Amino acid sequence: MDRHIYYCILKKYKGLFKKKLVGVTHLFILPRTESDYLYLALLGERTEVTGTYACVYIVRVPDEILDNILDGEKEYFGDRFEIIEHKLGEVKTLHKGTYLIKLKEDSDVFLKKEILLTYQEKESTPKKRIYNLVTKLDLETKEVGFEKLGEFALKSLILLQPSRFYYK
Predict the structure, then answer these.
(1) What is the pLDDT of residues 24-41, one digit of tens each?
(2) How far apart are alpha carbons 9 and 80 in whole angstroms?
(3) How buried is 150 (Cβ within 10 angstroms: 0-12 exposed, 13-18 middle, 19+ buried)?
(4) What is the pLDDT of residue 103?
């Protein structure tokens, strides 16, 4: 069954009168099973393994409300939230916590044909779940504000509040 794969950005601005783009949060909405998705935010590239990126879990999104979530993000954030890429793919569960996502079509922007998504139990806490995204990302640094992190520090990279779309 075909599943949708989304790559989005959330632009961050600084300044009261003259807004200046200071960075971007990279967001992924990736299929987990045939009935739900994972909403993830990119933390940065792992220094110990090339092509592996750490992502923090935001929320699990059931298939039925995915369109409502995307519409809600667009409405809440306005032009700061942008869907960069939307492709079709299929997901396969290799074993518990590990998913293989294969794109059915070529990516225009950043994704390669296969994405391996793995839950990192040892690095996760009850409040912050970490996933590894194993793929080659071609993120344009000048266009979207991504800078490769020199050092990987989970506690200092990102602090996320529970999503307003939390679903149990």
Answers:
(1) 888 999 998 888 999 999
(2) 8
(3) exposed
(4) 86
Domain-located, residue 142? yes
Whether 167 is in a domain gets the answer: no
Q: 3-state class of 104 per DSSP?
A: coil
Residue numbers of the domain that contains 104: 3-157
Q: Which of 124, 157, 160 is nearest to 47 (CA)?
A: 157
Average the pLDDT over 74-90 and give the result: 90
**Integer Cα distance of 115 and 6 in angstroms:** 13
25's CB contacts (< 8 A; 6+ apart) are: 9, 10, 12, 41, 42
DSSP class per residue in 117-152: EEE-TTT--SS--EEEEES-----HHHH-----SS-
